[in-house]
Write a structure and sequence with these properties.
By secondary structure, the protein is mostly helical. The protein has 5 helices and no strands.
Length: 95
């Protein structure tokens, strides 16, 4: 599933990810913990929508990519998970 999400990001941005970068390692680590939380039904607590709205406006493409990931997963993510996933996508795709 981690590889599938990495592929979603690659195809959305039409780029190759730098697998040697710190941002790539952080993203993969985040995804592993993310899947552990999903498997254990341990979702992050909801946060104020303000931060997500700010990130959504500033990083539109990363947010759209996150929505593709959410659709792939077939389940609704918490606001916090959406926020963190969007930020990690933004970081890993920044040049």
């Amino acid at each position: 599933m981690v590889q599938d999400i990495l592929n979603i990001v690659k195809y959305t941005y039409n780029i190759q990810l730098d697998e040697d970068s710190l941002n790539y390692e952080r993203f993969v680590t985040h995804l592993r913990f993310f899947f552990k939380r999903l498997n254990n039904k341990n979702v992050l607590e909801e946060e104020d929508d303000f931060l997500l709205e700010q990130v959504k406006d500033k990083y539109k493409k990363a947010y759209e990519c996150m929505l593709k990931v959410e659709k792939y997963l077939g389940q609704k993510l918490s606001q916090s998970e959406k926020l963190y996933l969007t930020l990690h996508i933004q970081r890993v795709t920044a040049r």
